[in-house]
Specification:
A 5-stranded parallel sheet has the order 2-1-3-4-5, with helices on both faces. Helix content is 51%, strand content 9%. It folds into 2 domains: 1-43; 51-246, SGNH hydrolase (Rossmann fold). By secondary structure, it is an alpha/beta fold. The model is unreliable at 35-41 (pLDDT under 50).
Length: 249
């Protein structure tokens, strides 16, 4: 009996220690990544140099430019049925709408495409998980930036496809333990603005509804994590967006 009890305690201690090591490793990795991102952002807070070389090396005017945050950056544009020389991706992970305002000229307008596809906003709205009382300020700033960006693109005689902001998903990652209800509510408010009140001659595509069955969260089968979508999710979006791209002349 004593040996069995000792064995059980040993197993429990080993499992407990292993779990603690996993948690500590995850936390250290997160801290290192956040620290690196913070230091890099101080050197180039708007990420104006992120695509500087790629833009300089372009020897043609692309037909389509996608611009936004990580939801765009992680998109394999070859899924949109284009020759890779005709479509370019200018998404940057972690960017807010304010950062995109400042780089819209050099990363999109100066490339002189026929068409721009924009998808951003979740990095503004995810802050509401920590500061839900700032919802009115964040929502208004995001509306203003959407209007500013779309107006600037259209004034350069570039056609625009504006997509709604993809909703968060319920996913077991670092965001799982935060209350995202304020973020979800604000995302739906912004999406209603994009679909109805944004002043533009643009085409509006409702990405959020394509991936959500309840209007609150992106369905788990499309999620890579709480804030990002997986390959299956991108295939759904690509199928829909391709039709709009080729029907916009």
């Amino acid at each position: 009996m004593t040996h069995k009890r000792i064995n059980k305690l040993t197993v429990f201690f080993c499992v407990f220690t292993l779990l603690n090591l996993v948690v500590i490793s995850f936390l250290v990795n997160t801290l290192v990544k956040n620290s690196l991102y913070t230091h890099l952002s101080r050197l180039d807070p708007i990420n104006l140099r992120f695509y500087e070389q790629a833009n300089t090396m372009l020897s043609f005017n692309p037909d389509v430019v996608l611009i936004g945050d990580s939801r765009i950056e992680q998109w394999d544009v070859s899924t949109l049925g284009y020759n890779v020389d005709d479509i370019v991706n200018r998404g940057i992970s972690g960017q807010t709408s304010e950062q995109i305002v400042y780089r819209i000229k050099q990363d999109l307008i100066d490339l002189k495409p026929r068409l721009a596809v924009i998808q951003f906003g979740i990095n503004d709205l995810k802050l509401l998980a920590f500061a839900p009382k700032r919802d009115k300020d964040i929502i208004q700033q995001l509306k203003n930036n959407y209007q500013k960006i779309v107006s600037e693109i259209e004034s350069a005689n570039i056609q625009v496809i504006v997509t709604t902001i993809i909703l968060p998903s319920i996913y077991l990652d670092e965001w799982y333990f935060y209350d995202l209800s304020a973020t979800v509510k604000a995302t739906n408010t912004l999406n209603a603005f994009i679909l109805k009140d944004l002043k533009c001659n643009c085409k509006r595509v409702d990405f959020a509804s394509l991936l959500s069955s309840d209007g609150e969260y992106t369905h788990a089968r499309f999620a890579a994590d709480t804030l990002h979508i997986n390959e299956f999710g991108y295939s759904i979006l690509a199928s829909n967006l391709t039709k709009h791209i080729f029907s916009t002349n």
